[in-house]
Amino acid sequence: MTPSVSASLAVDLRVQPVDGVLDRVERSFQVRLERDTVVRKRRSLGARTDRDTWVRVERRLLDKIGGQGWNGTECVARLEGIAQPEWHGCIVWRDADEPVMWRADETELLPGSPVGTAVLSKDPKLSDEWWQAFNSSLNALAAQHTARVATPDTVTIAQSIVTESIRSVFPGDFDTKVEEWVPAHADLNWANMTAPAFCLFDWEDWGNAPRGLDSASLWGSSLAVPALADRLWQERRCDFESRDGKLMTLFVCSKILGPHAHPEDPRLEPARRMTKQVVAELQTG
Are both 96 and 132 inside the same structural domain? Predict the structure, then answer.
């Protein structure tokens, strides 16, 4: 039996009882989850199994499951040239008490530990080999073709959302129209990649997005570590110097500098400096 909570309340799986969910996953996959390895996030869970695989479980409201479904991990498994865990299978069920669906995907184990939390506060000291694998995977992803549309934070990205987000923080005389849409991970942060061996995981939101979304998102997660943010900018220079990459830089910074900005966020000042430069370039370009 899955846990029942009023759909009007925000459910956080970091604190919500989840034993019933994990029990159901074990029965369906005919596997034992090693409960001492369980990783709990706001809307997902993960655990190692007794057959040396990993199971990720996600809870999603029905109105957050669009026409393309929410089978990102399954769909990305067919793509070549991307360092990702091999996908084995999945189970999906509808909650008996809420307008919610649950999905569990079983994959091979990650080749390393997550680089860190979503937003880093210290340099992870990544190797040149790591950066090469990172670039190779992002370039291979952007070269794919898909009908999927990215859903960062479970919201389908669209031109209207890009324009609204940018204009809400950066008014100015420049065009916000995106020219190039390419496949993107759409949740690229330091908690979704491994080191010392590079691997990219948590693919539930991938799909077409403005060019540069992934690079800008990761850059925004790196601003508290200037050397890391600078290295990322150099590695993904082709994205950041493109017109769409500049728009995505503003898009990401609108979330950092917007009305919900924390006054002590160390990313505020570097974000302000960069956005001033980017706005000027867009206005004169």
Answer: no
